[in-house]
Design goal:
alpha+beta, Beta Polymerase, domain 2, Four Helix Bundle (Hemerythrin (Met), subunit A), Hydrophobic Seed Protein, 5 domains, eight-stranded antiparallel β-sheet, four-stranded mixed β-sheet, 43 helices, 16 strands, 57% helix
């Protein structure tokens, strides 16, 4: 792709501007250094620059050409620098007879040196002198820089003579790379030619291996900083994996070795084929379009495609909504497909170089020998065969392996038997081989061979299931199959979710990457590598009757994402179609389909239902029906959550899942029927009294009467003892308000127990106090006593690693709750809550939804409230519930990125369910308004007189 005169037309009229600048100097008696002349010239150039940028943005919107926009902006910048340079030499620092030292050349370096410039990019310049700096040269450089700075540009600059350029390039790889891309803008042309000649002969020659190793190491370090996956949902389009810098690295390496000046010369050099070069340009053009739009939109050099700009960029690029996919999701899918293509290109070119020149000791390679090695190696990369060191793969005579890389001797390997397109990955997985770059190329060229016959082939499907359920490295192999395009061709339903992004803050990766990662997590659990984090899953996976159904269900569980219908139901239907093809029996197929249809159920129930409510366990057990399904569903749920992204799965979620598992296990094995509720209450009370042997008989009898039946049924023995001691200590002190802080390191939460006189707004006030201190409540359990006290237990997200520090933090939160309850500390009012929704969350729109359900619990009405998360939401909801004259029995808070699901078990003030349809409608309406922040709730009245 080349820039044409038509592309640059109208951006800036350099000749007219030059005439105007000289006219201004003439009007001042020829004195171009006059401050008034300088101010007037700045005004002219500023207007020209702004007009040119406006026109560049307008043309970007019209033709969508990212590279064209970058070239236009670079051309505009070139002309501005030339005008300033020429004016400085002709009107400000004129020399009649310049000496040999009074020469100067201005070169663009870095990205600007490639002739591309983003709207917010720095302008990187190199001022080159023939010898040492002279007063004239210093004055000219200073004049140019101050003019550019006053134009509002960020200028990176260096002033060096040629000797310094050469010396510093040898020592500093960053400087070497900058000069590699140097492009003369104006000034002494022989200086530029001399710089290039000396750079090539004194720096580049004989150092290809050193440069390649440095660039690949730099690339790996950058990927590690930005995130090792190219499928992060908020990618960095410049520095991230699959971004512009990866294309730069590819070109730098080729340019350094082949000494080409233009990317198109890579085809002549045989580095890239014509189709690969076209793909290179296509990827670069798209990424530049996104980058330029991003800079124009944000009015700053923003390189991260964050959620709050993705939709606007999608609209600018002309994406529209399709059934099941938003406009922004279609745009981001295109982005990730381009990032994948960039990975393909850099992998083809760099993988072999990395193997040859990074893994071998570079100190053994010197001088022209290195150049010869690279040259010979590049010839092999373009179609040669492995050396005599290669050995055949046992049992597969068509394959050889060299340096642990799989290769083929046959040019017709895939044409003769397309099943080899699956077999090659099974061989690699079985033996731990990598694929030779040339074999990877052959695979990509042969994708069209994977047709309906191959998909139906029993052997191909057997090999695929062997890869999927491998005990070696299934994640690595599946990712390679995906990167080469084989996975999407062999399983077309998987191909539909390749590079598919879900526009939310919960999922960190694209759908295909999530599915592949989930297989990796499952593999870790099976190998016992995550036993400390997932002890139950690690133990249960060893007891499964059929591990194959678990891995197949894991691979397919999100395969129907992006469709108009519920992806769990659609995914189960796809599984019923695919599993027989994979060789699964009818019963195995049904189990896989069931797991996919219900893969969210366990997570939903564990995080948003009262697990001490027998109805919750009964209903969940009715869905599961068997212990084998319960095991499979638990393991799949854990792996699914862990594969969503780093930090999404935590100890608290793990504890909730384990509790649900154990409670359901009791139900499925008949444990719940062995003891009546009254017997269970008597047993819990009797066990506690035995542990309170240091109490008097009178104290124990009185305390046993203070709690209702529900408390004894749902509170574990350790907490029963802790609560009893808290009550006793409080009674003896004569106080009516007490707190206990207990950190739980494994679960990642801190438990704060509040003992206070019962009050309808107690939980609301606690939530408000936590909101003020920035504490995040993840769960709450509310109990009342027969003598008018409330025992509220809240669980807040842990922030500090050390237990002692976390206890002190919890005590500060408890003190803030005490002050709020006694009226010493005011709670936020409506005005303070304005603007609580900031940052990324504003990019999302989640409709408020309120469900009022009387079938989920025998004793409570369950309110399920979902909507857009924001600071203070729980506080608003609990206040609203209080104003509706409802008592809260328990609260369960779940956050999924920007979406929150808060569930409250409530009764009316008489302890009854909310049966009146009209009242239910009022509850839905008021709570929906509270989610959106539209209800004006006056601050809760303090209950100081009750706790004083």
């Amino acid at each position: 792709m080349k820039i044409s005169r038509e592309d640059l037309a109208g951006l800036i009229d350099s000749a007219a501007l030059q005439d105007q600048m000289h006219a201004l100097a003439d009007a001042a008696g020829g004195n171009g250094a006059d401050p008034k002349v300088r101010t007037q010239i700045l005004m002219l150039l500023k207007k020209a620059m702004q007009d040119g940028r406006t026109l560049a943005e307008q043309r970007l919107n019209e033709d969508g050409g990212g590279l064209r926009c970058a070239w236009r902006l670079s051309h505009l910048q070139d002309e501005l620098i030339r005008l300033v340079f020429d004016f400085a030499l002709s009107r400000v620092y004129r020399t009649q007879n310049p000496s040999a030292a009074e020469r100067l050349m201005v070169a663009a370096v870095g990205g600007y040196g490639r002739g591309t410039l983003a709207p917010g990019s720095d302008v990187d310049l190199l001022f080159v002198l023939p010898y040492k700096q002279t007063p004239w040269g210093e004055q000219v450089v200073e004049y140019i820089l101050y003019m550019l700075w006053d134009l509002g540009l960020k200028v990176g600059h260096a002033t060096r003579n040629i000797d310094e350029c050469v010396r510093l390039s040898r020592a500093d790889m960053t400087i070497r790379t900058a000069i590699l891309e140097a492009r003369r803008i104006c000034g002494d042309e022989p200086l530029f030619e001399e710089l290039l000649q000396r750079f090539l002969s004194e720096v580049v020659e004989g150092t290809s291996s050193e440069f390649i190793a440095a660039k690949l190491a730099e690339r790996d370090s950058r990927h590690k900083r930005q995130g090792v996956s190219r499928y992060l949902v908020e990618p960095n389009i410049k520095e991230g994996k699959g971004g512009l810098r990866d294309l730069n690295t590819l070109f730098w390496i080729a340019k350094y070795h082949y000494q080409v000046r233009d990317q198109s010369e890579l085809v002549k050099a045989g580095v890239l084929s014509r189709s690969e070069y076209n793909l290179f340009v296509k990827c670069e053009d798209f990424l530049w379009a996104v980058r330029c739009h991003l800079h124009f939109l944000t009015k700053r050099p923003e390189e991260r495609l964050s959620f709050d700009v993705q939709r606007e960029i999608a609209i600018r690029l002309g994406y529209t909504q399709h059934p099941g996919m938003k406009d922004v999701e279609r745009f981001m899918k295109h982005y990730f497909l381009v990032a994948k293509d960039v990975g393909d290109l850099t992998r083809i070119f760099c993988a072999a170089l990395e193997e040859q020149h990074v893994k071998e000791p570079l100190g053994q390679q010197i001088g022209h020998q290195i150049g010869a090695q690279i040259g010979g190696f590049m010839r092999r990369l373009r179609g040669g065969r492995p050396s005599k060191a290669a050995r055949p793969v046992e049992g597969y005579p068509a394959f050889e392996v060299e340096n642990n890389r799989l290769y083929t001797l046959s040019d017709r390997l895939f044409e003769d038997d397309p099943v080899n397109l699956i077999r090659v990955f099974q061989i690699a997985d079985k033996n731990g081989y990598n694929l030779h770059p040339e074999l990877t190329r052959m695979i990509r060229r042969s994708l069209g061979l994977i047709d309906g016959n191959v998909r139906k082939d029993p052997e191909a499907n057997r090999l695929f299931v062997a890869i999927l359920t491998s005990r070696n490295t299934p994640e690595k192999t599946l990712r390679k199959m995906n990167e080469t395009g084989v996975l999407g061709r062999f399983v077309p339903d998987f191909g539909k979710v390749v590079a598919m992004m879900q526009f939310n803050m919960y999922h960190h990766y694209t759908v295909d990457e999530h599915l592949i990662r989930s297989i990796g997590v499952l593999h870790e659990i099976e190998r016992g590598e995550s036993g400390d984090e997932n002890p139950l899953s690690t133990n249960l996976i060893k007891t499964l009757q059929n591990r194959k159904v678990l891995f197949v269900a894991m691979f397919l569980h999100d395969i129907a994402k992006g469709r108009p219908e519920d992806h769990s139901i659609a995914g189960a239907r796809i599984a019923r179609k695919l599993c027989p093809r994979f060789g699964l029996s009818a019963s195995e197929t049904e189990t896989v389909a069931w797991l996919i249809e219900h893969h969210l159920d366990m997570s939903t129930v564990a995080q948003s239902r009262d697990l001490s409510d027998r109805k919750t366990i009964h209903d969940f057990a009715q869905i599961v029906q068997s212990m084998e399904r319960l095991k499979l569903l638990l393991i799949l749920t854990v792996a699914d959550i862990r594969a969503v992204g780093p930090g999404v799965f935590n100890g608290w979620k793990g504890q909730l899942l384990r509790t649900l598992y154990y409670e359901c296990e009791l139900h499925l094995t008949g444990g719940h029927t062995t003891m009546s509720h009254n017997q269970a209450v008597d047993s819990a009370r009797r066990t506690l009294m035995e542990k309170l042997g240091h109490w008097s008989e009178k104290e124990r009898t009185a305390y046993g009467k203070r709690h209702y039946k529900a408390y004894w049924l749902r509170t574990d023995p350790e907490r029963l003892v802790a609560h009893a001691e808290l009550f006793r200590k409080t009674d003896k002190s004569g106080q009516q308000l007490a707190f206990k802080v207990t950190p739980h390191a494994f679960e990642g939460v801190t438990e704060v127990t509040v003992l206070a006189p019962d009050h309808p707004r107690l939980l609301s006030i606690i939530a408000g106090a936590c909101y003020v201190t920035g504490a995040n409540i993840v769960d709450a359990q509310i109990d009342t006593t027969t003598d008018g006290f409330a025992l509220d237990t809240i669980f807040i997200s842990r922030e500090l690693p050390d237990d002692a520090d976390e206890i002190r933090r919890g005590e500060r939160i408890a003190d803030n709750i005490r002050k709020a309850l006694s009226g010493e500390a005011p709670l936020p009012d409506q005005t303070q809550r304005k603007g609580a929704m900031k940052g990324k969350v504003k990019a999302f729109k989640v409709e408020a939804d309120v469900l009022v359900n009387n079938s989920w619990s025998e004793e409570y009405t369950v309110l399920e409230i979902s909507g857009l998360d924001r600071a203070g939401l729980l506080y608003d909801l609990t206040r609203c519930i209080s104003t509706l004259n409802l008592n809260i029995g328990s609260a369960h808070i779940s956050t999924f990125g920007e979406r929150v699901v808060d569930v409250f078990y409530v009764t009316d003030l008489t302890g009854q369910k909310i049966a009146n349809i009209g009242r239910q409608e009022i509850i839905r309406e008021r709570l929906g308004e509270a989610v959106d922040g539209k209800v004006d709730l006056s601050p809760a009245a303090p209950i100081a007189r009750q706790v004083s």
